[in-house]
Amino acid sequence: MTTAAAYSISAPDGRFEKTSIERRELGPRDVLIDIKFAGICHSDIHTARNEWHGTRYPCVPGHEIAGIVAAVGPEVTRHQVGDRVGVGCMVDSCGECTACVAGEEQYCTGVGGAMTYNSAVSEEFQPGGTTFGGYSTQVVVTEHFVLSIPEGIGLDAAAPLLCAGITLFSPLRHWNAGPGKQVAIIGMGGLGHVGVRIAAAMGAEVTVLSQSLSKREDGLRLGAHHYYATSDEQTFKALQSRFDLIINTVSANLPINDYMRLLNLDGSLVILGLPDKPLAVPAFTLAGRRRSLAGSMIGGIAQTQEMLNFCAEHGIGAEIEVISADQIDNAYERVLASDVRYRFVIDAATM
After folding, report:
1. pLDDT of residue 123
2. CATH number, domain 2-163+319-350, options 3.30.2270.10, 3.90.180.10, 3.40.50.11540, 3.30.365.10
3. Distance (Å, rounded) from C-alpha 208 to C-alpha 192?
4. What pLDDT was estimated at residue 219?
5. Cβ count within 10 A of residue 73
6. pLDDT for res 110
7. How many helices (H) and strands (E) does the chain have?
């Protein structure tokens, strides 16, 4: 087994502490990765603080992992020592269900699926029976779930793409964002700012819908064509039936019906953020222009690689602030206060 340094939390109201964890022995199809950077996702905060319930402590979060291959098993063919690689939200799936066969492992319905952290697994898969994430110096991952990071992206800026990037890329691809399409992004945060860049690179006309205009300059710099404050009641009047696709990146309890009315004929509003209250949309809003309300998770492994290649080709990385491991608790508080532009990334060398 490999012993790695890590930062873990032991209770919902606890603080992160330096510790050591065991990684499984390198199997025939495994890749040992020296982690260089790990992004902080809002999901990490929800899990660390047990806000979604079911957190298994001690918890080592982190599913935006970028690093260098340190060793490979004898049957590994896609990666070799020295390669720049990444690991996102998944480290295993059944490989046999309809979703897995279709390359949509994120929707696996079989037995054996595992998220990068906080999943119950066998002792053989992860000593201790719980997956530990990227707030660590090393990780062992099955080859299929290891992504290649192209040279066109720095490892630090690439780390958040393994979650934030694919979370936006997948619905933009699925709902055919591109030339001639009017796309709106709700929220200009860790997810939204990446979505703006990707949607613009796809050729769509991009509008940001944000609570205020405080990030307007950034939005336009990253590729948005228009920027509106949703706190201004005139916004919802001016944009009636405008958009083909709206992607909601925020977890606030929004007046979702007001946003649905901004969709044109056959338009779709896709939910990425997870509010704590049910969404209420009158049937007339949907039926009147054949609108759709949908949801999306991350993407499958093949699509995640497509996303990384696309971002490298178009010079897209996350806007980041690199921190040391002893700043994780402070970073969590700053995320909750919206005091980051736009993604924290932990320098694993500080662990």
Report:
1. 92
2. 3.90.180.10
3. 8
4. 97
5. 16
6. 87
7. 11, 17
Which pLDDT does position 100 carry in this prediction? 95
Reading the block at residue 349, the tokens are 């060398």
Contact between residue 149 and residue 155 where contact means Cβ atoms under 8 Å apart: yes
Q: What is the pTM of this model?
A: 0.95
Cβ–Cβ < 8 Å for 21, 335: no
Alpha carbon distance 284, 18 (integer Å): 54
Question: Does 3.40.1280.10 match the CATH number of domain 164-295?
Answer: no
Residue 77 CA to residue 70 CA, distance in Å, equals 15
For residues 199 and 225, give the distance between their C-alpha atoms in angstroms, rounded to a whole number: 11
The CA distance from 278 to 268, in Å, is 18
Residue segments in the chain with a per-residue pLDDT below the cut of 50: none
H helical segments located in 274-327: 283-288, 301-313
pLDDT of residue 2: 86
Q: What is 41-78 written as a DSSP string?
A: -HHHHHHHTTTTS-PPSSB-----EEEEEEEE-TT--S
Q: Answer whether 230's CB lies under 8 Å from 253's CB.
A: no
Q: What is the 3-state secondary structure (H, E, C) of 175-238?
A: CCCCCCCEEEEECCCCCHHHHHHHHHHCCCEEEEEECCCCCHHHHHHCCCCEEEECCCHHHHHH
pLDDT of residue 314: 97
The residue type of 166 is I
Residue 173 tokens, joined: 């691809």
Q: What is the dihedral of CA 145, 151, 153, 154, to 10 degrees?
A: 90
Task: Return the number of other C-beta atoms located less than 10 Å from residue 57's C-beta.
Answer: 14
Say whether 159 sits in a helix, a strand or coil.
Answer: helix
Domains of the chain, by residue range, sit at: 2-163+319-350, 164-295
Q: Which two tokens stand for residue 45?
A: 């905060």
SS3 327: helix
Task: Note the pLDDT of residue 102.
Answer: 96
Q: Minimal CA–CA distance to 25: which of 102, 176, 140, 133?
A: 140
Count CA atoms closer than 13 A to 164's CA, side-chain side. Answer: 38
